[in-house]
Design brief:
Layout: E1 3-8, H1 16-23, E2 29-32, E3 41-45, E4 48-52, E5 65-68, E6 73-74, H2 76-88, H3 93-96, E7 97-100, E8 104-105, H4 108-121, H5 133-141, H6 155-172, H7 180-192, E9 197-199, H8 201-210, E10 215-218, H9 242-249, E11 256-264, E12 267-269, H10 282-290, E13 303-305, E14 307-308, H11 309-319, E15 323-327, E16 337-346, E17 349-351, E18 362-370, H12 387-400, E19 404-408, E20 416-418
Helix pairs in contact: 2-7, 4-5, 4-6
Length: about 425
């Protein structure tokens, strides 16, 4: 068997959590491959709403195994809060969740370093989620990290050494290094991890594939936040692209099956960094209000704009997307006209290729399409789609050259239409 991958094609928050939940019944296992509690994946069903940060979004279906993979960075305190809340709502989390020993631990000092780095950058700050993501991945790459599997291997000594290094760095940066108050709770939460099955997830997943089991890999963030191919330096610190599923789970490239690329019918971004199709006018505000575009974790206002097909084509290329999933089309239900950016004008020249930098001098070239002006939220099948909506979908498929197989018309699990193929 091969693994299927579901990942974001824009700047995150495309609706990954919702669709992973919807697709989970097709699989035996769901595995998160990168990122950490910077993610906020929202699921809605039976009138309830859940936001998952480190735990995969396959947790609510029929007992599938869920895995936190080796490419993830885990904050034990936030993980514990998330897990205990799920337990309270009836999820037998300890039975169905396994954690890779190779996942790296986010320490309290990583969060302090995240804040100090941002402060030093001043006006050019990244606008991180403040969860210690960058410093934890930095420690991983510079071979100073602490891994989940270290819990059983001389942990106290390793932790103290890492902490001392961080305190020195913080002191040099002139930042507060007071982590004592956070330490006891963190160490307690590290101990809590021992209540879970800690696995070598690469062996585990490959054995499952050999046994004919199906696996869905869940990405976090989005392609335009990828550390190598996103809008660097305004990115996160991991590989959010499909290759990240290979490295984050220990799955070989020839084991990748379907790649589901998910995007909103428009586009959003949180934090700093370039965003060519951003709208600063009433239309941008209307999208934010109708789409409730506020961060699932931080509550920050998301910047809103028209869909960017140049960036989407680039994301499709990087990920080898085989199926597209379009989210939140209902947010555009009342618009008389909808725009889509089909090319960029760079120094007066039109290009359909994504350039090295989108920081300045990019002028989006738009095509305007008629809106469908129909309430889509109660629609149950593709036969009910209004013609203008079908035309919009056909236009995107032609521009992107990949079929749109799933359409989401509302936040609830039920408001999802899988097209017949
Ligand atoms: P993720 O990080 O990719 O999982 O996405 P988020 O959960 O951060 O953001 C997506 C938001 O849109 C959440 O509040 C979802 O409940 C909501 N949502 C998902 N799909 C739809 C949809 O089709 N229509 C509307 N109106 N909301 C949606
Ligand atoms: P999900 O999985 C949207 C953004 C932050 C910031 C940049 C770096 O819910 O789609 P970090 O804390 O990772 O160092 O911040 O990345 N960012 C996200 N934006 N959705 C996310 O996750 C994000 N995770 C990080 O706002 O601009
Ligand atoms: Mg999110």
């Amino acid at each position: 068997m091969k693994v299927d991958v579901l990942l974001g094609l824009q700047w995150g928050d495309e609706g990954k959590g919702k669709v992973v939940d919807v697709l989970t019944p097709r699989y035996d296992v769901v595995a998160r491959f990168q990122g950490g509690p910077n993610a906020g994946h929202t699921l809605e069903f039976e009138g309830k709403k859940y936001v998952l940060r480190s735990i995969p979004s396959g947790i609510f279906q029929h007992g599938q195994i869920n895995i936190i993979g080796g490419g993830v960075v885990l904050d034990p305190v936030l993980f514990r809060e998330e897990a205990e809340a799920l337990e309270k709502s009836g999820v037998e989390i300890k039975k169905i969740l396994k954690i890779s020993k190779k996942a790296h631990l986010i320490m309290p000092t990583h969060r302090l370093l995240d804040a100090a780095n941002e402060q030093m950058k001043g006006a050019s700050k990244i606008g991180t989620t403040g969860k210690g993501i960058g410093p934890t991945y930095t420690d991983k790459v510079s071979r100073n990290g602490l891994r989940v599997g270290d819990i059983f291997h001389n942990f106290e000594t390793k932790y103290q050494a890492a902490k001392e290094r961080h305190v020195k760095m913080l002191t040099m940066m002139g930042a507060a290094a007071d982590c004592e108050s956070l330490e006891a709770k963190w160490l307690d939460a590290v101990d809590y991890l021992k209540g879970y099955e800690l696995i070598d997830s690469e062996n585990y997943i490959n054995h499952l594939l050999d046994a004919g089991k199906s696996v869905l890999c869940e990405g976090a963030q989005g392609t335009m936040l990828d550390v190598d191919y996103g809008s660097y330096p305004f990115v996160t610190s991991s590989n959010t692209i499909c290759a990240g599923a290979c490295s984050g789970l220990g799955v070989a490239p020839n084991k990748i099956g379907e790649v589901f690329g998910i995007f909103k019918a428009y586009c959003t971004r949180v934090g700093s960094g370039p965003f060519p199709t951003e709208l600063f006018d009433e239309t941008g505000k209307k999208i934010r209000d109708l789409g409730h575009e506020y961060g699932a974790v931080t509550g920050r206002e998301r910047r809103c704009g028209w869909v960017d097909l140049v960036a989407l084509r680039y994301a499709i290329m990087l990920n080898g997307v085989t199926q597209l999933i379009m989210m939140k089309s209902d947010v555009l239900d009342s618009f008389a006209e909808i725009k889509a950016c089909v090319a960029y004008k760079v120094d007066g020249k039109e290009t359909r290729d994504f350039p090295y930098s989108i920081e300045e001098g990019i002028e989006p070239v738009y095509v305007t399409l008629p809106g469908w002006q129909t309430d889509m939220t109660a629609i149950k099948s593709e036969e009910e789609f209004p013609q203008a909506f079908n035309d919009y979908v056909a236009f995107l498929e032609k521009e992107l050259n990949v079929p749109i197989t799933i359409l989401s018309v509302g936040p609830d699990r039920e408001q999802t239409i899988v097209r017949k193929r």
